[in-house]
């Protein structure tokens, strides 16, 4: 068994998407080779309704599959085939290749918390028929290990359980992990997969080939905002190198993170927002179809 060393730790960066939704982007819209088959991870946790209420009005997707995981609040969504749904706390949706909208509503406290992950589709499936899967929180298995570690299995297999999100071409394993305060936990990850963790509660350190290291984060002080280096904590993206397991040491408050892995597709990527093809010519064709009203191929 070999522990995956930490390649680097990145703090997610502020971004504005949709009709003005303020969120944090862990990665995306750039070089994504080390994340292949994943293209983007957005953290849309926000406690200010004015920062998310405008939502994500009608927009196209092609060549990707999205997985949206809601922790607090609700997201009303619909698509050009007439499908409609509402995601609540703990719910997941996955879909591909369609015109759709997602309108966050927040909860009674004004919180809208969740994540959206984009998974690439291989060239042979870029034009696959669109589909949606709405998964309720109660359908996501949660496993509690002997030391109190909790794992919610959203997609893929883990600790003998399979997540309810099925048929994603990238064959991801998507887990929501919580490790209790002070505990050290080793978790398996297949060697042939790219893997990353995204910390969203508590803090801790991930074992590496060298000494564990922290991430620069903004902190409020009496003198205003300042950058400090601290243990891996909220909004930290941890990118792992090769190996077959990851090891985390939880801090005093425990640590909660997404642990995501997938087999690389290793194909060229041509971007135009949420339209992702393999070549510029395919991209230009998709944009042309969007403009002349022939983008929808199924219905």
Q: What's the quick description here?
A:
The chain is mainly beta and 299 residues long.
Describe this structure in words.
By secondary structure, the protein is mainly β. The chain has one domain (6-292): Sandwich (Jelly Rolls), CATH 2.60.120.10. The chain is 4% helix and 53% strand. Strands 2, 3, 4, 5, 6, 7, 8, 9 and 10 form a 9-stranded antiparallel beta sheet that branches. Strands 1, 11, 12, 15, 16, 17, 20 and 21 form an 8-stranded antiparallel beta sheet that branches. β11 and β12 (150-155) form a beta hairpin. The longest helix has 13 residues, at 280-292.
The named CATH superfamily: Jelly Rolls
Along the chain, the helix and strand elements come as: EEEEEEEEEEEEEEEEEEEEEEEH
Query: What amount of the residues lies in strands?
Result: over 45%
Rg, Å, rounded: 19 Å
The unreliable regions are 209-219
The CATH architecture category equals Sandwich
What's the multimeric state?
single chain
Count of helices? 1
Task: Give the SSE layout.
Layout (H helix, E strand, L loop, with lengths): L5 E6 L1 E5 L3 E7 L10 E6 L12 E17 L2 E5 L4 E4 L4 E13 L8 E8 L10 E5 L6 E3 L5 E6 L1 E2 L2 E2 L10 E7 L4 E5 L5 E13 L8 E7 L2 E7 L5 E5 L4 E18 L7 E3 L2 E3 L2 H13 L7
Antiparallel strand pairs: 1-20, 2-3, 3-4, 4-9, 5-8, 5-9, 6-7, 6-8, 8-10, 11-12, 12-15, 13-14, 15-21, 16-21, 17-20, 17-21, 18-19, 22-23
């Amino acid at each position: 068994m070999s522990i995956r060393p930490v390649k680097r730790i990145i703090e997610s960066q502020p971004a504005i998407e949709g009709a003005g939704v303020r969120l944090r982007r862990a990665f995306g819209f750039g070089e994504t080779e080390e994340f292949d088959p994943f293209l983007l991870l957005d953290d849309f946790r926000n406690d200010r309704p004015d920062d998310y209420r405008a939502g994500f009005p009608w927009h196209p997707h092609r060549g990707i599959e999205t997985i949206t995981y809601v922790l607090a609040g609700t997201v009303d969504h619909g698509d050009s085939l007439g499908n409609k749904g509402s995601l609540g706390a703990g719910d997941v949706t996955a879909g591909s290749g369609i015109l759709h909208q997602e309108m966050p509503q927040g909860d009674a406290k004004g919180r809208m918390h969740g994540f959206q992950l984009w998974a690439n589709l291989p060239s042979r499936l870029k034009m696959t028929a669109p589909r949606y899967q709405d998964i309720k929180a109660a359908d996501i298995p949660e496993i509690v290990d002997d030391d109190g570690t909790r794992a919610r299995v959203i997609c893929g297999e883990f600790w003998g359980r399979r997540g309810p999100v099925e048929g994603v071409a990238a064959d991801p394993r998507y887990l929501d992990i919580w490790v209790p305060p002070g505990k050290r936990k080793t978790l398996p990850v297949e060697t042939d997969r790219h893997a990353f963790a995204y910390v969203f509660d508590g803090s801790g350190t991930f074992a590496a080939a060298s000494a564990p290291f922290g991430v620069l984060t903004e902190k409020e002080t009496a003198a205003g905002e300042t950058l400090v280096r601290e243990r891996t904590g909220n909004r930290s993206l941890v990118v792992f190198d090769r190996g077959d397991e990851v090891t985390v040491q939880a801090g005093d408050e425990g640590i909660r993170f997404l642990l995501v892995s997938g087999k690389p597709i290793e194909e060229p990527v041509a971007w135009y927002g949420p339209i992702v093809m393999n070549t510029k010519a395919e991209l230009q064709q998709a944009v042309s179809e969007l403009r002349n009203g022939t983008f929808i191929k199924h219905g």
